[in-house]
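User: Predict the full complex structure for these chains.
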Amino acid sequence: IAGITQAPTSQILAAGRRMTLRCTQDMRHNAMYWYRQDLGLGLRLIHYSNTAGTTGKGEVPDGYSVSRANTDDFPLTLASAVPSQTSVYFCASSDSSGGANEQFFGPGTRLTVL
Amino acid sequence: GQNIDQPTEMTATEGAIVQINCTYQTSGFNGLFWYQQHAGEAPTFLSYNVLDGLEEKGRFSSFLSRSKGYSYLLLKELQMKDSASYLCAALDSNYQLIWGAGTKLIIKP
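Assistant: Here is the predicted structure of the two-chain assembly.
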């Protein structure tokens, strides 16, 4: 693995189903983030983690949960998907949460909820 | 509230120069980022400014005026591969990034 990876690349999901988006980084970055990107809107932060074992809510956390059991992995779970969660989801990481550290993004997961 | 404004779309000619503007209003300010995003791909880092002035990096330069809440990205000697969206993002007092919706830059031959 080089950098940050996400799985799946794309997914079509029935409303009401549970779904976990996976994110793994091998850069030993402390901070990780989940964003959603919708047409005409900026990237919106869903949840973040400043270090393994801690998580926090971003701008649009409702309907999503995260965990950070170790440094490398930061899965995002939709407990019961709804059509408004149709979006492109990007995972990102940075060396630390404080300070001006650039964020490195994964390739994204395109999710469609029907 | 916190807000980032940038033009939705711009068109420029190959070989020319283009300036993409960004204005921001945030709770506190710890710097401004520019990212490039090609269609269907992830954003990638271009620049970071925290002090007033111009930072030059090859064909790309970024400018910041903290007193005016204003930044611009200057792209010189435009190439077709520069066709992409350019995202402006401000770092607020909690070190959270506030993102603009992006400017789609179309380069014509």
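The interface with chain A takes residues 4, 8, 30-31, 33, 41-45, 48, 50, 87, 89, 91, 95-102 of chain B (CB under 8 Å).
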